[in-house]
């Protein structure tokens, strides 16, 4: 066996995922590279049609995600832990926040921190407003695009993955989120197709971000004099360095490389932000931050549901910003969600949602206020110094920093932050892609991580050189439409899983075991292990329940109280009725009830008595239609005692004045 065969044999790649994914990834790359203009035109027509005609799908999907997570936070399910009930968080709070933030949108803040507010500020659709109102709107829309809605998209995927992985012990892959719907079929072709979609989406999202981001990094290095121009070979060198460090970081594991780089970068980003805050219009920034949050909260629902249907002049802006952002967040959610889930073991659902929605959103708001409002303030006070180059997004950040002291130092710091953000996005992406391709296999060989790093770097350079990155980005945005519907199914699966989970862990002992002692434990063991046929339960009711209720009825009659026992055939049941004139009659009955057994239990070799996936049990019922309970273990005397307990409850309720209307039998008889 040669080295190649030995390497492939030790691989954890799943052929059903890796083969179709590589075929699709390479095919799309080749088409986008050889026919960049034609491909871009076709895909742009499709994207435009979707954004114009189906924008409401994106709006409603993201709205559902926000509402779903907010309701879930305050529900009874919020205390459920993503793991065992006694499990502790795997990472410290600061490390956790740093990693999810860096993976989620760290590089985007550097790229759009100045560019987006300035774009909204100079948008022609808002040219009728004065400068102050345009500045306020620029902050509001930037908050909207980078706030709770964006993180709700990531939160749905991350929570679904973390819940079904750590709570249900399923693989950390998107297929696991369909377990309540597909059950064991997630291990077949359907599961492979879901993970193939996730792998391709993740690869294309990281590739386009890497390609476009390198252009900004190249422009920054030219700005500070490190590089001479923005040629392809300079960009190729940048990609090579980024991917080399990313692979080293990824192969060292999440607990080392990824975590430490994320912590380093968040500290560097905060340092740069504080510098701008102190040397910029500090009082204005702090005041506008407070006002901006208030404006965002006030306009929250209006922004959430607004499709600009009544304002055609702003619709192109709406399609090119809000809808594009929603599509972009959705297309990135498999990658970011997988990574967030991977680092969130041990957190409660309430803690997860609260941290994912609130903390990054708050930081984004602060960042966008410091950089965005400083930019619009500088533009207003310095004669349009930034609005004149607003179309040149790659240089806008560095031109902005040039308006402050020691701009060469801050530009270098900004380049460092962008560089590390690239690495943290790439190394976490490498880790996630290998995780998907191997269906969460443990102890994957390190060459697989190297493979993904090389493929990412190589194909991003091919597309960058051929001009095919725009096509790839457009296709990624198009795939967000079907995935938004898939994410709605994630919400449904979560609800199903959480209801079962809550019922399982909160369920107490069966009422049938309430009076147990150790006296008849062997007989009761035999009873537990026996799954009865209908005839056996009918016999129990006829031979044990009926004599007990007859004895109880005789005792009532001795007290001059009218009581009778009735027998019914379908289903077989025995019932005692105690007559009353003014209040409702008291009824206590036991009937034969069919119960479906899990197929897993039927296949369990340690329970050989189970032959079919159904059994029959004796269940109580009452005159007021309350739910009954299983009494299959009750003895003759215990059945009498149970009926008396229910009668005592009935008399206690009847004696309460506030229950008169509910128990008044004369009113009901007159109907």
Automatic annotation (TrEMBL):
Pfam families the record matches: BCCT
* Keyword Transmembrane helix carried by entry: yes
Molecular function terms in GO for this entry?
Answer: transmembrane transporter activity
Which locations, inside or outside the cell, does it occupy? Answer: Cell membrane
Provide the topology term for how it sits in the membrane. Multi-pass membrane protein
Q: Where are the transmembrane segments?
A: 21-43, 49-72, 93-114, 143-166, 193-212, 232-254, 266-287, 323-340, 352-370, 404-426, 447-469, 475-498
Domain of life, per UniProt, equals: Bacteria
Predominant location category: membrane
Q: Which UniProt keywords apply?
A: Cell membrane, Membrane, Transmembrane, Transmembrane helix, Transport
Q: Which GO terms describe its cellular component?
A: plasma membrane
Query: What PROSITE patterns does the record point to?
Result: BCCT
PANTHER family (alphabetical): HIGH-AFFINITY CHOLINE TRANSPORT PROTEIN (PTHR30047:SF7), HIGH-AFFINITY CHOLINE TRANSPORT PROTEIN-RELATED (PTHR30047)
Which family does the entry's similarity section mention? Belongs to the BCCT transporter (TC 2.A.15) family.
- What is the protein name stated in its UniProt record? Transporter
Q: Which organism is it from?
A: Pedobacter antarcticus 4BY
């Amino acid at each position: 066996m040669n080295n190649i065969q030995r390497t492939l044999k030790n691989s954890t790649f799943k052929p059903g995922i890796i083969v179709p994914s590589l075929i699709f990834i390479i095919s799309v790359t080749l088409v986008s590279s050889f026919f960049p203009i034609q491909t871009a035109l076709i895909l742009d027509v499709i994207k435009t049609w979707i954004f114009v005609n189906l924008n409401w799908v994106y709006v409603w999907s993201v709205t559902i995600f926000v509402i779903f997570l907010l309701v879930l936070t305050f529900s009874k399910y919020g205390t459920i832990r993503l793991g065992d009930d006694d499990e502790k968080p795997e990472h410290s709070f600061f490390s956790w926040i740093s990693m999810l933030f860096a993976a989620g949108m760290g590089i985007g803040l550097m790229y759009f921190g100045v560019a987006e507010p300035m774009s909204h500020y100079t948008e022609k659709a808002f040219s009728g407003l004065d400068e102050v109102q345009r500045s306020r709107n620029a902050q509001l829309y930037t908050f909207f695009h980078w706030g709770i809605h964006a993180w709700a998209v990531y939160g749905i995927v991350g929570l679904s993955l973390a819940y079904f992985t750590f709570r249900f012990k399923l693989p950390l892959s998107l297929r696991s989120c369909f377990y309540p719907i597909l059950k064991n079929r997630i291990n077949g072709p359907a599961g492979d197709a879901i993970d193939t979609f996730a792998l391709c989406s993740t690869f294309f999202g990281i590739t386009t971000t890497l390609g476009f981001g390198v252009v900004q990094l190249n422009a920054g290095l030219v700005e500070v004099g490190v590089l001479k121009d923005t040629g392809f070979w300079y960009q190729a060198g940048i990609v090579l360095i980024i991917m080399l460090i990313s692979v080293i970081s990824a192969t060292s594991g999440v607990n080392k490389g990824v975590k430490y780089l994320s912590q380093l970068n968040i500290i560097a980003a905060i340092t740069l932000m504080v510098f701008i805050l102190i040397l910029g219009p500090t009082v204005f920034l702090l005041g506008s931050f407070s006002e901006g949050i208030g404006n965002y909260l006030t306009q929250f629902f209006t922004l959430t549901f607004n499709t600009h249907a009544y304002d055609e002049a702003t619709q192109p802006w709406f399609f090119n910003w809000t809808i594009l952002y929603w599509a972009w967040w959705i297309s990135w959610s498999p990658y970011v969600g997988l990574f967030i889930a991977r680092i969130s073991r041990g957190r409660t659902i309430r803690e997860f949602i609260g941290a994912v929605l609130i903390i990054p959103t708050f930081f984004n708001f602060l960042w966008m206020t410091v950089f965005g409002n400083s930019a619009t303030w500088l533009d207003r006070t310095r004669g349009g110094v930034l609005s004149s180059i607003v179309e040149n997004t790659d240089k806008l950040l560095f031109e902005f920093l040039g308006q402050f002291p020691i701009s060469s130092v801050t530009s270098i710091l900004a380049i460092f932050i962008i560089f590390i953000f690239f690495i943290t996005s790439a190394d976490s992406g490498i880790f996630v892609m290998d995780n998907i391709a191997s269906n969460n296999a443990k102890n994957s060989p390190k060459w697989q991580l190297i493979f993904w790093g090389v493929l990412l770097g190589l194909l991003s350079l091919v597309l960058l050189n051929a001009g095919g990155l725009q096509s790839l980005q457009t296709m990624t945005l198009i795939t967000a439409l079907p995935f938004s519907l898939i994410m709605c199914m994630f919400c449904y699966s979560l609800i199903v899983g959480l209801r079962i989970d809550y019922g399982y862990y909160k369920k107490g002992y069966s009422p049938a075991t309430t009076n147990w002692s150790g006296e008849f434990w062997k007989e009761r063991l035999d009873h537990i292990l026996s799954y009865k046929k209908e005839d056996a339960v009918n016999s129990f009711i006829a031979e044990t329940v009926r004599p007990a209720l007859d004895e109880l009825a005789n005792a009532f009659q001795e007290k001059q109280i009218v009581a009778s026992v009735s027998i019914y055939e379908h289903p077989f049941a025995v019932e005692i009725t105690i007559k009353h004139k003014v209040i409702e009659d008291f009824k206590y009955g036991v009937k034969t009830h069919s119960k479906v057994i899990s197929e897993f239990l039927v296949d369990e070799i340690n329970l050989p008595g189970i032959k079919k996936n159904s059994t029959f049990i004796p269940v109580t019922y009452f005159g007021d239609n309350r739910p009954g309970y299983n009494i299959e273990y009750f003895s003759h005397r215990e059945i009498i005692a149970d009926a008396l307990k229910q009668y005592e409850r009935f008399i206690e309720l009847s004696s309460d004045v506030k229950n008169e209307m509910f128990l008044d039998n004369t009113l009901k008889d007159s109907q």
